[in-house]
Amino acid sequence: MKVLIVEDEPKTADYLERGLREQGYVVDVARDGLDGKHMALEYEYDVIVLDVMLPGTDGFSVLHALRERKQTPVIMLTARDRVDDRVRGLREGADDYLVKPFSFLELVARLQALTRRSRGQEAMQLRIADLQIDLLARKAWRNGQRLDLTAKEFALLAALARRKGEILSKTTIAELVWDVNFDSDTNVVEVAVKRLRSKLDDPFRPTLLHTVRGMGYVLEVREQSEDA
Amino acid sequence: MKLSISQRLAAMFAVASFVTLAVLGVAMHGLLKRELGRHQDNELQARWQMYRPFIMRNDEAAYWGHIRSKFDNSLSENSRVRVWVLSDDRRFRYGSELTAEQLRSAVTASFGQVRLPDQQEPFKTYSAMVEARGERPAVRLMVGIDSTPFVETLQSFTVGLVALTIVGALGAAALGYYIAGVGLRPVERLSGEAQALSPGRLSRRLQTDTLAPELSKLADSFNGALARLEAAYQQLEAFNADVAHELRTPLGNLIGQTQVTLSRERSVTELKEALHSNLEDLERLRAIVNDMLFLARADRGERAPNRIEVSIAQEVAHAVEYLEFIFEEAGVRVRIEGDAQASIETSLFRRAVTNLLQNAVQHAPRGAEIVVSVLQQPGAIRVSVRNTGSGIAREHLSRLFDRFYRVDSSRSGSRENHGLGLAIVRAVATMHGGTVFAESDDGATTIGFTVACA
């Protein structure tokens, strides 16, 4: 998977480059609008992360130039939380946008959504260690025992299981499980995870649902539990 | 060029008095001319009557020389007056020779005028026939008087009038300038006072009690604007202070914790722990900044852009579903009453309702019921969340929707709640053309908002 990052802020560009590389992406970085436009047009990328405020040529003109020739998916990064910028970005052919400050996990989630082309062929049966999930029948078992989950608990488990090994932020979980796309002061996700854990992990070994402090939750098999 | 009010008033006074005086002058000039003319005519007729007996009493040509000397005598003392006796008979004539031209203008009517070669102004004349007697045929007696004094009087009067008009206009201008200056003195005082206002002394107002009614109205409006400005300014200042305060705690944590961590050799686990902790604080900062940006959007007057027509009760139900686990944990039930259709931006609306419910559940005792009611009102839809429990004191109610305002100050700094929840409710209401409200008595608290509907 090849990503072009067009970003002039050095620290932002550096952490994005490192983070995405570690996520398994091949990353190119352009430090201004002109380089960005050149690279976006000359080379093939699976997705482009494009900052709006750039020296040389701004993000909109890069997008404009790109869309005249290519349909590479683009995520715009806007520093100002202005509807104008977002509407303008989407109208001119951006596929998604993120408002700074954004979380890195959020960016990864959006990138995956844009590049995960054929989710239709997804398996209906998921298996992690002794956990078995039937997405169609909406049922789950551990060690052969049926887990008695409510609808929301199952939705949470399914969301985590589909992205096994990926850290899901609370915001992403709220969006996937409750279709809520705003920040709120509630600790709904914590409560839901606690409930799921009591049914999924408390009676069984190994522990599958892990908390990553400050980031979110991940469903995976670990050598030993690192839960805080 | 821009004229001052005093200058303008002075100019207007000048124009007004000039026009008045000019009209008066023209009228007086006309009147005087007519009066002077009448006076001349009267004098001519009187003189004619005076000289007529000279001729009447005489009927012999031989005696005409005596008449001539009598006329000469009578006229020598007054060069203004001339007399002519016109007759076909050369013997009965008197006065200087007149050309036919001169005669015509004098004789065609009883009043006429004769232009004499040695005089600048024409003579005004009156002539009439004196009937024949004895040897003397009927003769025409013509009396002329010099119109120079009349013309001169009229001229000097005209000059006087023009001079008076100009001087009067200039005087009015000067006086007007002075009067305007005096009249505008309160304005100057007012502007002096206004100049003395500065951001540091925002609570100062213009003195209105000593002002004229016209100005006090202006000053009142100005004071009103000042009051609004002061409120906005104070809100901004308080807001900046609040933001600084809210950001200070997580920033302090971040710096301190990072310094402590870096001051010794640490194990990977310890380093990880520090980074996780930093991340929590950073996430909190991000959430505050994002919420502040959101509130700023509403402050700028932005309206909800992506509205769709939906059932309000269904949207409320969605928010209730989201918080279901929270309600179960807290042991409270939620009931939704009423419904209405409205055009709203669903994510904003759900966010507002979620914040209200979150607030309610924090204050409701275990086993309580939270009631969300949706009420269709004229022009607006009212969404209120009511919870039982200890009420909120009156002094807190009005400030409940202020940013970072916390009823229970000990809750400040809680990790969950950064005190923007209800401010966001208000922002959402504003973006939907609505308002917020809060009521509380001993047993229950109702907090809610309205959204405008067409």
How is the main sheet of chain A built?
5 strands, parallel
> In percent terms, what proportion of residues of chain B is strand?
15-25%
The biggest beta sheet of chain B is recorded as:
5 strands, mixed
Approximate shape of chain B: rod-shaped
Give the overall shape of chain A, derived from the CA principal axes. Answer: elongated
- Low-confidence parts of chain A lasting 5 or more residues at pLDDT below 50? none
Strand order of the largest sheet of chain B: 6-8-9-11-10
- For the terminal residues of chain A, how far apart are their CA atoms? 33 Å
Spatial gap, N to C terminus of chain B: 51 Å
Label the structural class of chain B. alpha+beta
Strand order of the largest sheet of chain A: 2-1-3-4-5
Number of strands of chain B: 11
Radius of gyration of chain A: 20 Å
Give the number of helices of chain A.
Answer: 8
- Which series of helices and strands of chain B comes N to C? HHEHEEEHHHHEHHEEHEEHHEE
Per DSSP E runs of 2 or more residues, the count of β-strands of chain A stands at: 11
Alpha-carbon Rg of chain B, integer: 53 Å
Mean pLDDT over the residues of chain A: 85
Model description:
Chain A: The modification 4-aspartylphosphate is found at residue 51. Chain A: Residues 123-221 bind DNA. Chain A: Residues 2-115 form the Response regulatory domain. The complex is a heterodimer of chains A (228) and B (454). Chain A has helices at residues 10-22, 33-42, 59-67, 83-91, 104-115, 151-162, 170-178, 188-200, and strands at 2-6, 26-30, 47-51, 74-78, 96-99, 125-128, 131-134, 139-142, 145-146, 209-212, 216-219. Chain A is an alpha/beta fold and 228 residues long. In chain A, the strands form 3 sheets. A 5-stranded parallel beta sheet of chain A has the order 2-1-3-4-5, with helices on both faces. A 4-stranded antiparallel beta sheet of chain A has the order 6-7-8-9, covered by helices on one side. In chain A, strand 8 and strand 9 (145-146) form a beta hairpin. Chain A starts with a strand and ends in a 9-residue tail after the last strand. The model of chain A has no long low-confidence stretch (mean pLDDT 85). Chain B contains 12 helices and 11 strands. Chain B has helices spanning 5-56, 64-76, 100-107, 148-183, 185-196, 213-262, 268-299, 312-322, 324-330, 346-363, 394-397, 421-431, and strands at residues 81-86, 111-114, 123-130, 139-146, 308-311, 333-337, 341-344, 369-377, 380-388, 436-440, 444-452. The radius of gyration of chain B is 53 Å and the shape is rod-shaped. Chain B has a 5-stranded mixed beta sheet. Residues 410-416 of chain B have low confidence and may be disordered. By secondary structure, chain B is an alpha+beta fold. In chain B, a hairpin with a 3-residue loop joins strand 10 (436-440) and strand 11 (444-452). Helix content of chain B is 56%, strand content 16%. Chain B starts with a helix and ends with a strand. In chain B, helix 7 (268-299) packs parallel to helix 12 (421-431) and helix 10 packs antiparallel against helix 12. The A-B interface holds A 80-83, 87, 99, 101, 103, 152, 174, 178-188, 191-192, 195, 212-215, 228 and B 273, 275-280, 282-283, 285-287, 289-291, 293-294, 296-297, 302, 305, 318, 321-326, 329, 347-348, 350-351, 354-355, 358, 416-418, 421.
